[in-house]
Specification:
Layout lengths: L6 H4 L8 E2 L17 H13 L4 E5 L1 H4 L10 E6 L2 H10 L6 E5 L11 E6 L3 H4 L9 H10 L1 E12 L5 H4 L27 H9 L3 E12 L2 E7 L6 H18 L9 H10 L3 H4 L2 E8 L12 E4 L9 E5 L5 E5 L7 E4 L2 E4 L7 E2 H11 L2 H15 L21 E4 L2 E4 L4 E3 L5 H18 L12 H10 L7 H19 L5 H13 L12 H47 L2 H31 L4 H13 L1
Length: about 625
């Protein structure tokens, strides 16, 4: 008996069982550069708990990483464009009772059924392959809405054409210069993203009613921070947004040159209530059909730390009433983790204004008195015995300006979850905090009143001297070693301690993140680049003129050579040359005879004496 093999079976991957569609990418992987969207996971869990779905679609590689958030007894389908990703996600979806995996583009995706929950992340850039037909953002939302049941929910992210990251970054999007940017300029794709004013119309045209809209930071591919659009209306929640948004942008721009300091720009955007208009991207939760009578209690803020696979990472969820819940990125029952001298507990953070932002603003005024008053306040707080008691002194090492908040007339830690065994003195904690601030200030190219070539260690000495503290190289080395120990413990690589220590000391000697050791920031580099470009254009103009002159002289020389050749071919020139030959021979013979006669007539050694006399006379 011969077994019947259908076309559908032929188009299945033998390893993962994924159905191969048009637009599949056999040798590409999106998951190599993407991490689990932990912030979106909390929002999806809220939606699932409010209304349990019957069938779920996870479209896109990052959405596929959320398969663990879907209950195992719920049918789930996954759509990715890369075959290696389909195989990876197939293993993660193996615990579900029923799951189908599709590998290909959204443009040809036709499962034959609909869903009551769709999570689609990445937009057309992640949902389509080079063989797919190009889709705009509006067409992508339309195809997803067609797969949604009446009354079902959709979670989709949209990139903002006016995201403020484009206003502060000094470099274009790196993906545009790589293979991942193949869709730029391709047929069918939109030449730009969506504006904030177009978002509601785009949803309403597909019969979708928005339940909640979150500003997604720092980028459309990295939702480490989600802020609900109405959260900034409350002052206490707004203070939390400013601090957490600054931290998210610091991580995103840690290796990228900037035109402006993102913390200051972002704080002004939050204070102005324009975060929704200028966010790099949005995550939208919408229902199909009429608006839901009961909207789930979606969080106001969701903040997830980077490195999702790191056991030290956490996810913070802030509700509308400013209540915070902290959980591990990798779920586990224990509320504490420790290794070596380092430990961390699930302690919620607080709201307030960033002290580092105040210190940066004081530096921008270039008034030393304003800087000195804030540094003295910071030093007095670190040395206050009523604040750093026996129970809290082990946290003082982590009280850097970036992790310090201003609440009225007092300072407090933003994240007090970290502890290090062994009390660090107030002086060492001050040096560590000022050195961390100096590195970040110089690396971001922010304005300050000191010379452009100042190094982080030199700036640390200057700031510490404002409090009367003398910082030596031994103190800096001691603080740097503690930083290296903490970094190696968090990374889980204690064997890298010496390498991290060496790198830490080098970063203090001159700012490694800067374009050059004697540059303040990227703005100065751009100014220098303009000067060099102008000089290069002038030199290129001179070279072009000289090359033209040289070509003109070459043509003139060739014309003279042709004239000479014509003269040499004439009968007169040949006759003269024939008459000159006997005369030249006779002259050379006469001179030779005269020389031999003179040598015979003169006494021996006379010629040598004559030469020596001539040499003395010529001197």
């Amino acid at each position: 008996m011969t077994a019947h093999v259908s076309d559908q079976d032929v188009q299945r991957d033998a390893i993962s069982g994924a159905r191969i569609l048009v637009g599949d990418m056999l040798m590409w992987s999106d998951l190599e550069t993407l991490e689990t969207p932990l912030a979106v996971r909390e929002v999806v869990r809220t939606a699932i708990s409010a209304q349990r779905p019957r069938r779920v679609l996870l479209a896109g590689p990052r959405a596929g990483l959320l398969v663990d958030a879907v209950p195992t007894d719920v049918r789930v389908d996954l759509l990715v464009r890369a075959l290696p990703d389909a195989r990876i996600l197939g293993d993660r979806a193996g615990l579900h009772e029923s799951s189908d995996i599709y590998c290909g583009g959204l443009d040809v995706f036709s499962p034959g059924h609909t869903y009551d929950l769709i999570v689609a992340l990445g937009g057309p850039a992640r949902l389509l392959g080079p063989d797919s037909r190009g889709l705009t953002e509006a067409e992508t939302v339309a195809r997803l809405a067609a797969l949604l049941d009446e009354g079902g929910r959709i979670v989709v992210d949209l990139a903002n054409e006016m995201g403020f990251t484009d206003l502060v970054s000094a470099l274009p999007d790196e993906t545009l210069e790589s293979d991942a940017g193949w869709y730029v300029g391709a047929a069918g794709f939109s030449p730009r993203h969506v504006f904030a004013r177009e978002r509601s119309t785009l949803l309403e045209q597909q019969g979708l009613h928005a339940e909640a809209t979150f500003a997604a930071l720092p980028s459309v591919d990295q939702h480490s921070l989600l802020v609900r659009d109405d959260a900034v209306q409350h002052e206490r929640v707004r203070d939390r947004v400013g601090v957490r948004a600054g931290q998210a942008m610091d991580e995103h721009f840690s290796t990228t040159p900037m035109l402006r300091e993102p913390r200051a720009v972002l704080q002004r955007i939050v204070d102005a209530g324009m975060l929704d208009e200028l966010a790099p991207a949005w995550v939208v939760l919408a229902t199909k059909g009429a608006a839901a009578t009961e909207v789930p209690a979606y969080p106001a803020i969701v903040s997830a730390e980077r490195e999702t696979d790191n056991p030290w990472s956490t996810v913070a969820v802030v509700s509308q009433d400013d209540t915070e819940t902290l959980a591990w990125a990798r779920p586990r029952a224990d509320d504490e983790i420790s290794e070596g001298k380092l430990s961390r507990s699930l302690i919620p953070s607080y709201g307030g204004r960033s002290f580092e932002l105040e210190l940066r603003q004081a530096c921008a005024t270039r008034r030393h008195a304003a800087i000195r008053s804030r540094v003295k306040r910071y030093a007095a707080w670190l040395a206050d015995p009523t604040v750093w008691t026996r129970q809290t002194a082990e946290r003082r090492y982590f009280a850097t300006p970036a992790n310090t908040l201003v609440q009225g007339d007092r300072l407090t830690m933003a994240d007090a979850s970290w502890r290090r065994t062994g009390i660090v003195s107030a002086e060492d904690a001050l040096v560590r905090g000022l050195r961390d601030f100096a590195r970040r200030l110089l690396a971001s190219g922010s304005p300050h009143p000191w010379r452009p070539s100042v190094t982080p260690d030199e700036l640390t000495v200057t700031l510490a001297s404002m409090t009367g503290l003398t910082v030596t190289h031994a103190v800096i080395a001691r603080v740097a070693r503690i930083e290296a120990e903490v970094a190696s413990t968090v990374a889980g690589r204690p064997e890298d301690l010496d390498e991290l220590l060496s790198r830490n000391l080098e970063q203090g000697e001159y700012a490694r993140d800067l374009p050059a050791p004697d540059e303040v920031g990227f703005r100065e580099l751009l100014t220098h680049h303009r000067v060099i470009s102008r000089e290069l254009r002038e030199k290129q103009g001179q070279v072009a003129w000289l090359e033209g002159t040289l070509r003109h002289r070459d043509r003139y020389i060739r014309r003279l050579e042709k004239v000479i050749e014509r003269y040499e071919e004439t009968l007169t020139y040949r006759a003269v040359e024939a008459l000159r030959a006997p005369r030249r021979i006779a002259t050379e013979k006469a001179v030779s005879v005269a020389k031999s006669t003179a040598q015979e007539a003169l006494p021996p050694g006379a010629m040598n004496k004559a030469r020596q006399l001539a040499a003395r006379v010529l001197k």
